[in-house]
Amino acid sequence: MTASTVRTRRAVGAVAATATAALLLTGCVSNEPRESEDDAASGPVAVTENDEPGDEVVIGFSAPAADHGWMGAITSAAKAEAEKYEDVTLQVAEGTNDVNVQISQIEGFIDQGVDAIVLLPFDGAALTDVALEAMEAGIPVINVDREFTSPFAARATVLGDNYGMGVSAGTYICEQLGDNPDAVVAEIAGIDSLPLTQDRSQGFKDALDDCGLDVDARVAAEFTVESGEEQTANLLSAEPQIDAIWNHDDDQGVGVLAAIENAGRDEFFVVGGAGSANMMREIQDEESVVDATVIYPSTQAADGVKLARLVAQNKTVSDLASIGVPRTVQLYAPVVTADNVEEFLPIGFES
Amino acid sequence: MSQRSALMGPALRMGGLVLALVLLVVVGVATAGERFWSTGNLITVLSLAAVTGVVSIGMTFVITSGGIDLSVGAVVGLASVWASTLSTQYAAEDFGWWVIPLTALAVGLVAGLINGLLVAYGKMPAFMATLAMLAAARGLAEIIAGRRTQIVTVEPFFDVFQSRPLGVPAIVWIFVVVAAAGWFLLNRTTFGRRTVAVGGNPEASRLAGIKIKRHTLYLYGLAGLTAGIGAVILLARTTAGSSTHGTLLELDVIAAVVVGGTLLAGGRGTITGTVLGVLIFSTLTNVFVLNNLDSSVQAIAKGAIIVGAVLLQQWFAARERVTAT
User: CB of B152 within 8 Å of any CB in chain A?
Assistant: First the structure.
């Protein structure tokens, strides 16, 4: 009895020592690459006379927590855009998925009397009231990505095009498979309860309908690598022969590709969604099953910052004939393929 | 009479689980035929069960002892992130692929031992201590990873963990080995008997000379260790570490353990039941996907299975009490 306790104690001691050694071995938990390379991320640039320095403006910025690559890119692109202007001071509130915290951040901006607010709400409906408050206080609000429920709550709205993403993906697949009405098309959606997922799926279905195809198999993941892998593994098991797959989200796409590799399948091509740098590198690689991805711009908050600056400085958008910043800007969902990937790689986000 | 029911109880309970699994398999074959009953698909089901399965083995011990570990999912995330940072990957390139799994196991073990210290020596309720670890481990994982997906590029790691000895993926073998080791540890060793005793009657176990505090420490360490193994499997499957790995895994794991017949109150645990519980859930998911059914309906089915299993458990427990007296 005592002998066995001593033995266990020794065993446990040894295990604990090994564990500590292993953690020491990997040293600090650093993610610094060995040789650093400058990543000068800048997409196609059009310089206009609007970019000339104007009145000094303070812009408040609030967005959800950067818990996935796309959302991380949203905030960093907004910051990068603001840094290009010496007349803009961007006050970035800590990203949060708690609507109460986000509401208090906007209240803080109002108290402080900023010149404009760029707001990507965690939940559009929940942030509508406080946005109205800001507008009533004379602070223009630029609403990004997730719409408020009241048209009075924002001076301008920048939106991605979820339905359009589905249409772009579906149209691309139609072009590739158009002559084969029996082709098997599979869809790996994101979180099914979100309106954005429903819009993407509807657009995809409508575009496929147009060329006589339909979605033969559909699974919904959760925008995470793990769920993407799990759902895809099941999907591949369920469908022994697939011609094309559309995956809604490149962040979960890492898992999707892992599952495809694990299953050793390559009889189909994959179209991605959102536009991560990682997927674009897959597109460049001719061996990869990934042929294309559909952009959901991670630069839309950067657009919001640009518009907020124009509104606060009483300027107008230079390439439009009408006066005043437009009420709504809906961004295009282009398809990235091997032909144009070079052009899009700079705006691809690291997932 | 009472002796017969004592033997019949576990057999009946296990019979119920096997019946449920067979039922699912019949539904799978009836609705998807060849696509379900193919070697490839059965391997898919087992591979999908591997992460939940391995972590469930550790959880079975904790629950058997009357405890609970809510942190396993977050610890899986943390271990996957720590084992896939660039510095870990460089170390793996310099020293060998084993650095990655060893790091994951070490992170899991240390997190588990901290849980154990808090519960056993800090006298915190297990629910609160491990809830705190859940939050902290997830947060630390997010900080280390910078909320990015860390793609693993150490090829030798995949050569080992994506290999298929005898045509079966290595990760399934890991599940089998961990389950077998867990069964042996629970049913054939002093450690296992003490675990059951501590869960059944802590006061009596203390009087019988079991060092409850130290034993509790080991149990949470074990649960953390299995979470580390789970992280290795996830790394091998997804080729990436992420702070989102293992999100809500704790719920799937607890569900599988309890459906399997381990008493949530402690004092009785079964590894075979846990394995069956895990297989039931992963087969359920598979059958739903094969039939292209909505994932929301699947969530309802999962809920129904949990309720059914626990009601059945209580009914058996009540019957045993009646026959015993």
Answer: no
